[in-house]
Amino acid sequence: MAVSTTPSQLKSPFQYGHRFSIYRRSRYVALLLVFLICTSLYAGLKWQIEPELEPQPEPESEPEPEQEPEPEETLEPIYHIDPGINLTTNTQTALVLGKMRRDNVEWVLELGEELNYTSIIYSMESLPEKSAFIPHTLRGHESAAYLSYIIDFYDRLPAYSIFIHPDKDQWHNDLFGSPTSEVLSNLRLAAVDSMGYVNLRCKADPGCPISMHPLDPTPIDIENKDVRAYMGEIYMELFQVQLKDVPRDVGGVCCGQFVVSRERIRQRPKSDYMRMIKWANETTTTHNFGVGWVFEKLWHQIFGMDAIYCPRFEQCRCDVYGWCGPLASGETLTPVGSH
Ligand SMILES: *[C@@H]1O[C@H](CO)[C@@H](O)[C@H](O)[C@H]1NC(C)=O
Ligand SMILES: *[C@@H]1O[C@H](CO)[C@@H](O)[C@H](O)[C@H]1NC(C)=O
Ligand SMILES: *[C@@H]1O[C@H](CO)[C@@H](O)[C@H](O)[C@H]1NC(C)=O
Question: Do you know which PANTHER family this protein is assigned to (predicted)?
């Protein structure tokens, strides 16, 4: 139950059995010497057998510094649309994404033209690309772009904001094959009018019914200092709630692509999003990947849904994409927001 179960509370083995006699101590030293000699012999041998083994990169370290960009891209960034644009008056729907230099987002611009959506693209590079917006932090992958957009456009949001990944194809797009363009062409915005927040994915797994237990990290998470071990305190910080208001279980459909209405975004004051991005920027509890992981688990709650928000697959498919049956059972569903 206690959220403060941190690795520092685990007893070190060196806190025990420190009273050696002189005799036992010298025997201990001798054993240690033998051990050290064996280890170094083994290490030398291993090196001779496997000299080609490269040291493995730190699995959870910050990304490598960017490679040298094109010279003209080190200049002032140039926005692809007027940064002062008022989306409320100029567009109904925005496509929001972050991109790395290697990501080709031509398909987003084409789709935007086809559907009359405005693309708001953030450059996730330390030397930003031309024609992109600059996020308030680079930590947390796409969540940094999403939060930066909300903060930058809070007073001039369009009716619908669609948050997507930059790749044309996503394994987690579940109903129309992998291209996100197919998903978006079939999206029912009426569902967003009714629900405020809609995940683009309907399949429950992974993420539903439960994706984490903020207050009950496993001993392995605690030992590994995994971000899960600190979710209770992170939750309290992000949502500014007391320990008693941290949910025991959190669950939501995965993968960080969703649509939110203007009203739903504004259900929170701008200062909430600023606090969240400040946490992403400054936390030492976790690293870049962990920050993105935290937001992916919490978006539905940030946008006003219950801690566990796992709609029935068939109803989601009907509400969000208009495929309402008849199901194998003979049942035909009614989409939300149909009059
Ligand atoms: C595109 O959307 C804007 C804002 O909703 C609207 O004023 C404009 O007429 C639309 N353009 C086309 C070609 O549908
Ligand atoms: C954007 O346009 C809307 C509607 O025209 C207006 O109410 C709002 O104040 C404008 N926001 C900004 C930041 O100019
Ligand atoms: C993020 O951290 C950097 C460096 O400490 C700082 O310059 C920047 O203002 C911070 N941004 C936010 C959104 O807190």
Answer: EXPRESSED PROTEIN (PTHR37490), PTHR37490:SF2
